[in-house]
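Re: folding output
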Amino acid sequence: MYIGLMSGTSIDAIDVVLAEFMGNEIHIHAVHSHPWPQDLRDTLLTLSQENKDQSILHDVAILDVKLGKLFAEATIEMIEQESVSREKILAIGSPGQTLYHHPNGNPPYTWQLGDPNIIAQMTGITTIADFRRRDMAAGGQGAPLAPAFHNAYMRSSEENRGVLNIGGIANLTILPADKNQPVIGFDTGPGNALLDAFSYQQQHLRVDQDGAWAASGQIHPELLKDMLEDEYFARSAPKSTGRDYFNLEWLSYHTLGLSIPSEDIQATLCQLTIDSISHTIASHNIQRLLVCGGGVHNSLLMKGLAQQLPNCKVESTEVIGINPDLVEAICFAWLARQRLNKQPSNLPSVTGASQAVMLGGIYL
């Protein structure tokens, strides 16, 4: 059995999954959702949205330790609640918490917090972490990594599928029915990141529940057009991005000089997520779109995607027996398994790496 951890760009909770992989089947033995202490969450959100040159290294180093302890505590709590024998757990896969992701920088880099040494020491379980940098060392984007897992467990020979994870950032995997066709995957742009950030700034709400606030506003065509003209959306895959790009500073740049009611801005941000995803999917012959991540619970988003994609079934991953809230955590349990088994787990067709490589450092 393997443990997978996940705290995505929304920083809403730490998901812990205990999974077993048997042939083509996944068995989920236990799940746990661990809350973020508000002070740590606020610090992370502040750091990830400010200019990287202004970050105080001392604060970041302390945060790295605190997050390592928090990930360990989340794991231990699940183990104790479920009375799981630690000897049966082969490894923990921890992606860490992404602070900065700049795959197109000079030089390219990515930075995740949550010291895996602390996780291994506190839990007494081998921990696999630092998954992204080996792919980047091979010339890849270091993200998204989930498409390899999607390919292993969600691909069908009967239909062209897409797997869409709507977290803070939305990422899409294209799974052709033809096994001879390569898997494609990339970040489409903002998922919930801008929606959540603007909702908190204007209404002190962490989440625009079910898109209710966005639904109360009107889409502003000029603002939507301006945002969709951002060069990221026109960039060809492979590509990846993060909250340090799509944030409130980015939004302020696009709303400068405009007098728009806040609910209309929220409605337009929701449409931005819908359009940036659907415009991409429209260029592929996808017959079924399987959606996971927090955005699957936003009915306004889901309805918008279904309307924009009339020739594609838009459904939760629940229809294939995988909880949409656990897909990412299960993925990192699988990535940990791949690493212990000395198997490559990146897809060069997705990340742009020069070759398939083993991902993750092993902390015994």
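--- second protein (sequence, then structure) ---
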Amino acid sequence: MRQATPPKTTAKKAAAEPPAPRRWRQGPITVGSLTGRLTQPALGKRGFAGAEILSHWATIVGPELSAFACPLEVKYPRGRNNGATLHLRVAHGAAATMLQMKLPDIIARINRFFGYEAVTQVQSAQGPMPKRALKSPPPAPLPAEKAAAVDSQVAGVALEPLRESLAKLGKTLQQRGR
């Protein structure tokens, strides 16, 4: 009967294997550093060379334009990486009119952001905008008696910075009703 022999490992194969995963050698990895690798396949199919135009849209066109228009797709001519058409979604007809009026400025801003003539045309279509997280209104000011109660609870803490931090935390929790 033959005995199974362990597979032979060559020096070349052993040298090709990393000694440890990257995250253990260099510490924890931030989620932001992984988003480029994770979103690249999906964005590449939509014509976005990277997530820059999506993540910096408000910076590129300004907050007033980004409130009612968002990029959908960038279509490049076959075999070229410049002269693309940017497809936008606009919220309503008035927004489309304003967008048409500011079109040369938008194209100039996008091309300035990329550093070359990436976009030459913009097409827009009216439709629903992606939902954004609603900002909650600021909490009502804390009544004086509750603020005094929090201050009296932390008065025994000897360290000034710690006492201030605990008082701030206590007041915030009181405002939220916890």
